[in-house]
């Protein structure tokens, strides 16, 4: 080798791989080539591209050989890995609220962990025992039992953990045990567990200690032991106050009727300062500044602060509503005291405006409408800097609602318009649009009554547009959807009265669409189902005799059947359903339904008439007489009911009873030709010649009188028509 270094030896005067010719005279890359050796476009002869090893066409390389687990330590590591995988899968399933799957994975992890421990024991690998893994498996299993509401199993598993001396921090799990006892309403045991857990928490863990103390206070409240609950809450409020604890404390003071402490507790709530709350309040109260949706989507911290701000506001509003009627001699003084306290703090001025609305609502609940109107009308007189546009819009919305119920349509319409204007053109307040729409719909009804049909159409159309705008603001605004359906039904009724059947059907289908959308939101609403059923019924009548009409009839029957399960004692619904079944030729079911309707409301003449006719058709004349007699008592001037009673007597062979009934009818209605005809017939059958002749004479006189009356009526109608033609 001489002095040449390894890998740099020279062969002749040419370096390896850069010679002009290779062995055997093979043409190789020239020294001036810019291509790498072996990377030609055609490849070398006898090769296939980059495959220099002659394996072309043999497919992919075989997989790597799996390492055989012959070593006990390797087997233990693999088993431990499986346990950890199952723990992760169980935790993920729990986070997705798939509690059954989470519990199954937790049980499987526990089973494999026990097998792992036995494996290590049998192979003298005790020094590798993983206590933390055993703890994690047991804790996860207990947690999944708790999530699946298998409380006894969860308590047993937690007990095994806390009794194990190897787990020094396991005493904290008594909080979980306390939560289970709390859910089981075993409040004394829950308090015991919370206190045992409290002893395990060091003084440095203040946050956890205060949460446990709050749980203890909550348990005392459930037991009705407000004094001990107050002591727990007061300890928290003195050390680390928070809004939830402050609210709970005010509730306890309220339960004990301590008005002074209610005031102090509420004042202390208002004095709590939380990070970010001031900034959040200032941003929400800035006038004329619209929210930047893109910024809100990106700034998660800002969204969290806003959500927390809403929670805090809710606690304060609820506390204020609770104590305001009790802390002073009169309700008004109590609300004024709370509102003044809120106004003194800049962050809660919007809450003060909310409380004024609540004050008006409270007056309404007390049926003191005039005071409620005074409170709401005061918003117009105040400086607009004291309240935002949304609050003013809410006040006007309530005033519109009150005046609408009072029948003062002009004022209701005025405040409805003002509510929309105050809301910056319907950006947020769907209720304002609904109230304004109601005013327009009532105007349409008034115009329809005056037979101004063009104006009525315009008012109904304006109402429809307002309801549509309300749905645009709040997609699931049930008031807007329901009233839109009613408006469309009114428009359909108007067109039906004018004879525009195409428009009538179009509006009915639009109304049906609105109620079907409402049904998706409120499937248990009887009002929604009733409107759907009656619309299907009307459409079936409009398309009677066609396949479409039959389909509507089936749908109406389905919805009526569902409705009768929701309002089982509504005689009107049962009557409608029974009549529909009769149209479907299901007389047996119709009879049962109409009989139920009669039991709940025995004065519906249509139901009585149908039941009487049903019994006549079934040749059960005695039962039929009961219903016709009932109808005669309800409508004593209607002669047909007693005629039917007499007819039933005659059909069962009670001729004397029938004769007596006909004679009673003839005395009350001497010119009734039908009654006289039956009297003549029955007298002939009974062989009463004198009475037959008498009634024949009366029948002749009655027919003459009727003929004379008919001629006079026709003459008057003719004269009236001639008079109209002359004019």
- List low-confidence stretches: 1-27, 46-56, 285-297
Mean pLDDT: 84
Class computed from helices, strands and strand pairing? mainly alpha
Q: Work out the radius of gyration.
A: 44 Å
**What characterizes the major β-sheet?**
none
Estimate what percentage of residues fall within beta strands: under 5%
CA-based shape: elongated
Features:
mainly alpha; 727 residues; elongated; 72% helix; 0% strand; 32 helices
Describe the overall structure.
34% of the residues are buried. With 727 residues, the chain is mostly helical. α17 packs parallel to α19. The chain contains 32 helices and no strands.
Outline the secondary-structure elements.
Layout lengths: L71 H24 L3 H24 L8 H17 L3 H12 L11 H10 L3 H14 L5 H18 L2 H14 L3 H14 L2 H12 L6 H9 L7 H6 L1 H24 L7 H13 L5 H17 L3 H13 L7 H18 L2 H14 L7 H20 L3 H21 L4 H20 L3 H21 L4 H17 L4 H20 L4 H13 L3 H14 L4 H13 L3 H14 L4 H13 L3 H14 L4 H14 L2 H38 L1
Helix pairs in contact: 1-2, 1-3, 2-3, 3-4, 4-5, 5-6, 6-7, 7-8, 8-9, 9-10, 9-13, 10-13, 13-15, 14-15, 15-16, 16-17, 17-18, 17-19, 18-19, 19-20, 19-21, 20-21, 21-22, 22-23, 23-24, 24-25, 25-26, 26-27, 27-28, 28-29, 29-30, 30-31, 31-32
Task: Summarize the entry for a quick read.
72% of the residues lie in helices and 0% in strands.
